[in-house]
Amino acid sequence: MAQQSLDALIDRDIQSLVATYKVLHAAPELSHHEQKTAAFFASQLRTFGYVVTEGFGKYENPAFTSYGIVAVLKNGPGPTVLIRTELDALPVNEKTGLPYASTVKSKNDAGEEVSVMHACGHDIHMTSMLGTARVLSELKQQWSGTLMIIGQPAEEVVDGARAMLRDSLYEKFARPDFAIALHDSSELEAGKVGYTPGYALASSTSVDVKIRGVGGHGARPETTKDPVVMAAEIVLALQTIASRERSPVDPVVVTVGSIHGGSKHNIIPDEVNLQISVRTYKEDVRLKILASIERIAKGIAMAAGVPEELAPIVKVSGNQVTPATYNNPQLTERLASAFKKTLGEDNVVLVPPAMVSEDFGAFSMQQSIPSTMFWLGAVDPAKVKQSRETGTVLPSLHSALFAPAPEPTLRTGIKAMSAAVLELMKK
Ligand SMILES: [Zn+2]
Ligand SMILES: [Zn+2]
Predict the structure, then answer these.
(1) Residue 298 C-alpha to ligand 2 middle, in angstroms?
(2) Is the pTM here over 0.85, yes or no?
(3) Across the strands, what pairs with 313?
(4) pLDDT means per 10 residues in the chain (427 residues)?
(5) How far is the CA of 132 from the centre of ligand 2 (A)?
(6) Cβ-Cβ contacts under 8 Å for 109 (sequence gap 6 or more)
């Protein structure tokens, strides 16, 4: 009975939701700039009877305005369940060629004009959330408790969740008993969902290293301390953190994503700058890696004869940092069983953990609130089959070619998220 009415409601709404998805897809907004997206999302939720607060969140940088949304539907006694969608898009120039492809260009935080695309599928998440919000507002007789929908800005730069918590989200509304999110998958077929109990996504920390030397003529290296050679040694030595300092069964990533220094063939520069991304699951491991980076950089500079006062400067970013996403195993297994009942055994698959990052983990308050994020298959099943047969790689999230199959993805997203909430709040 419950299943039937859920399916019937989704059937009724799906065409208009696909249209909503296409509108959102064609009008992406960058992190910190989600003004119109948030206003639209809020107005839709209001029409479904939710009490909506707009402009929620406080960034560390006071120049940014938060467009966070909190929508609450109180429905009798019972648990408070937080469900979250992101609102932001990415600086990517869409190349899907779809009729509803984005042609939007807008200014980023640095004032540069960039192309914008929903290349991470946050438009799928918002539309699924709207579908779920409406369905649950109409199935109120089947559940009891408080539903708290979060429209989170600035996920892609990982400061949106923190900004909302910093604005006392849980004190001003309610501290949830559970927190749930979904993320579309560029590998799973539309119609399926994936789950990962335990650590699912890594923490991410950005680190800048300024290697300082003593510059001079390229033909007179004996008068210099060459930061280019030091940088080369440091980049290679950093590889030993993962391979020699950490346990092989506790994954870490140390990637040097950017290296810049020098201006000309025959000049030894004064400095070289590295930008490093650190990924781990555990907080103590993260801190050890940050210490290793500093030790290695300083040690190599010292070995090269760089004086103490010119030792490398290692700066750990205070805002480009996000905790790991830990999926509470009990909650995750409970929801996986609910998904199996709703979607069928074959459509619910165990997915291995990954080292990409998300700021959803922040909502769990250091894992004190049971939370889980599940994967929502978003790829046309025919394309998945073809890629398996031919060994070709499908466009990943953040790719200019990422193109979810809207209808089956949205259907499954709404069904799965509604089933999750009903499981936790059923009467
Ligand atoms: Zn993303
Ligand atoms: Zn994303």
Answers:
(1) 36
(2) yes
(3) 210
(4) 82 98 98 98 98 97 96 98 98 98 96 97 98 97 97 96 97 98 97 98 96 98 98 98 96 96 98 97 96 98 97 93 95 98 97 95 96 98 95 95 98 98 95
(5) 19
(6) 30, 32, 64
